[in-house]
Amino acid sequence: TISIKPKKVSLNLTLFQFPFIVFLDVIIFLVFCWVLASMSDVCYYFIILSREFVQFYVEKFQHST
């Protein structure tokens, strides 16, 4: 049991860190898209797509916990 417990702790840490990393990636992507497209129709479409992806990921993460 001593060797199993540290693995569970590190697994919980990665579960909490991973959504934050994805969230940062989405923000970086949105900022890059905003600079590149200057809020054109294409960028607006990507923002809608990324919002749908974040909602899907949050729901999936909440079900797994």
What can you tell me about this protein's structure?
With 65 residues, the protein is mostly helical. 89% of the residues lie in helices and 0% in strands. It has two helices and no strands. Helix 1 (4-37) runs antiparallel to helix 2. It is elongated. The model has no long low-confidence stretch (mean pLDDT 70).
Distance between the ends: 22 Å
Oligomer: single chain
Sheet with the most strands? Answer: none
List the helices and strands in order.
HH
By DSSP (H or I, 4+ residues per run), the number of helices equals: 2
Structural class: mainly alpha
In helices, the fraction of residues equals over 70%
Low-confidence spans: pLDDT under 50, at least 5 residues? none
Could you give the count of β-strands? 0
Residue-averaged pLDDT: 70
Please give the radius of gyration in angstroms: 17 Å
**Gross morphology:** elongated
Write a brief structural summary:
By secondary structure, the protein is mainly alpha-helical. The protein is built from two helices and no strands. The radius of gyration is 17 Å and the shape is elongated.
Features:
transmembrane helix, 65 residues, mainly alpha, membrane
Which helices and strands occur, and which strands form pairs?
Blueprint: H1 4-37, H2 41-64
Keywords: Membrane, Transmembrane, Transmembrane helix
Transmembrane segments: 20-47
